[in-house]
Amino acid sequence: MKRKDQITQIAQNKFREKGYRAVSMRELADHVGIEAASFYNHFDSKESILKEICFRMADEFFNGIEEAINKEKFQDKQLIRAITSHIKVITSNTDASAVFFHDWRYLSEPFLSEFKEMRRKYEAIFRKIIREGMNKNIFDKQDETFTVLTIFSSLNWVYEWYDPNGKFTPTQIAENLSKLILNGMKNTLQTS
User: In sequence order, which residues have a C-beta less than 8 Å from that of residue 53 and are 6 or more positions away?
Assistant: First the structure.
């Protein structure tokens, strides 16, 4: 493992464990086993580590949802694939996920605005899937914002309880969540 990757991995763990603000560069350097001065050969600040984690995760989320849209024609299938991808990103690195969902607030400008815009665009893609599914009567017509926020509330907390050695694999989690979410969104209107 490259030193920069090792630093990032340790930082993710420490940020999750103690919170971004409570972790110092010296503490990270000690855990990596290097002098604090050597640390700056890899990252110029603690925030640059946070930026690396948050934007890398955002890229992974975007790659997954873009694949969902490009590979599936119907919105219910797009949503299942988007949910599956989202869960796989979260479960592939729960420490990074915790940092992504909580510590992005500590980014300074212009990175904070850039990150918020990426989140907005990602949510907009989910909204578009939902809206198009409602317009085609694949999904029941419900409040779009409420629907998207409910979906993200279900998905984004998985890192808190997911156990790689536990009962459910990431695929099983995604399948179960997809079923629950889609069953709640189904258009149940009967046509005569």
Answer: 8, 11, 12, 15, 96, 99, 100, 103
Query: Side-chain half-sphere of 142: how many Cα atoms within 13 Å?
Result: 20
Residue pLDDT, tens place only, 61-120: 999 999 999 999 999 999 999 999 999 999 999 999 999 999 999 999 999 999 999 999
pLDDT > 90 fraction of the chain, expressed in percent and rounded: 90
Q: What is the distance between the terminal CA atoms of the chain, rounded to a whole angstrom?
A: 62
d(C-alpha 12, C-alpha 95), whole Å: 5
pLDDT reported for residue 184: 86
Task: Give the whole-angstrom CA distance, residue 137 versus residue 90.
Answer: 30
CA distance 64 to 36: 36
Contacts of 119 (CB under 8 A, 6+ apart): 58
CATH class for domain 46-185? Answer: mainly alpha
Parse the chain into domains and list their residue ranges.
46-185
Average pLDDT score, the chain:
94
> Which position has the token pair 């971004």?
20
Residue 32 clears pLDDT 80, i.e. is over it = yes
Number of H helices, E strands in the chain: 10, 0
Within 13 A of 94's CA, how many CA atoms are on the CB side?
A: 12
The alpha carbon dihedral of 183, 186, 190, 191 has a sign of negative
